[in-house]
Amino acid sequence: MIVQRRAVTAVLATAALLLTAGCSSDDGDPSGADASTSPSNTAAQSPPSGSAAEETPPAKGSVEVVRTVTTGLQSPWGLAPLPGGDLLVSSRDEATVTRVDEKTGKKTELGEVPGVSPAGEGGLLGIALSPDYASDRMVYAYFTSASDNRIVRMRYDEKRPAGEQLGAPDTVFRGIPKGVVHNGGRIAFGPDKMLYAGTGESGDTGLSQDKESLGGKILRMTPDGDPAPGNPFPDSAVYSYGHRNVQGLAWDDEQRLFAAEFGQDTWDELNAIKPGDNYGWPEAEGESDGSEFHDPLAQWSTDEASPSGIAHAEGSVWMAGLRGERLWRVPLKGTEAAADPQAFLEGEYGRLRTVVPAGGDKLWLMTSDTDGRGDAKESDDRILELRVT
């Protein structure tokens, strides 16, 4: 077993300090200067020898790019499909929410979210629709304010003029630590209709092991922002801890939760989430010999992944890589990897930020080349429709 033990590091106040210290920030150094810190062994870790997964390996997967849905998005981050098929997209730096016509690609700005303070990796990040969207028309958003990271909800009124269709934000949850880096930001409603949020430790590694802190956690709450019934710690929204920076959340067909997490400069992780478990950071990065830590089901060197969004489809978790510039497939057998992960689209579309199910064997995949770290082309950023097996 590959072991990576890490001592608690000093608080990192800025992204520049991270880079000079040789640590990769979540999305990687735009100049690529920190790539030399990655280990030479870049293979994703496979199941133990002799496992049942090896005896009956699943068929190799495939990815087909069906079409480009739209282009010209600026610093897109969150992606939420509407019931009729269109897509809502958040812009990290512009703090706007835009509706994309799924058939024509036409973009209509719904409005700007007030109170967003974009800087570094912070800004308007994840978005999600209320589980009762058909009746309440509520859009939830996770963003960085001047003082913290918080979650708000806004009513979407299509009858109002374009640019004025988002109602005033109602703050659902506040007080998540903010930083120049490691702001987390992914939100999603689970099969239980509870709201889940992936947070980062904001560069202060000590927060991850502190169960009283909201940083470096997966949070679970009611749609109104109260700690969800059945959470592992009394009167707390904390669902799991010991995370560095969680930006991917997805459930399989058995309602099991998986999460993607940025490593520092050794291992990125895909984890199967168990309520109350400790995922190791900063004491462990990747697999560990410490029985008190929950090991990842798969891990990658940071130059191969730097994962943001994940989705479940066709029996696999699909993971979007920023610095890795590829889409990973991790076939599952329960909460374990059933075979070696496979990489697709390597280097073809640049940095990949968000992937969400589009029904059946389809996925929506959104790029992230206009966020200041990618090599933006004239048509970036874009949303692609994929067919996967």
TrEMBL record:
Pfam families: GSDH (PF07995). Residues 24-61, 94-115 are annotated as: Disordered. The keyword Hydrolase does not apply. The keyword Signal applies. Residues 94-110 have a biased composition (Basic and acidic residues). Residues 1-21 form the signal peptide. Residues 24-36 have a biased composition (Low complexity). Residues 73-373 form the Glucose/Sorbosone dehydrogenase domain. Keywords: Signal. Residues 37-49 have a biased composition (Polar residues). InterPro entries: 6-blade_b-propeller_TolB-like, Glc/Sorbosone_DH, Quinoprot_gluc/sorb_DH_b-prop. This is PQQ-dependent sugar dehydrogenase. It comes from Streptomyces thinghirensis.
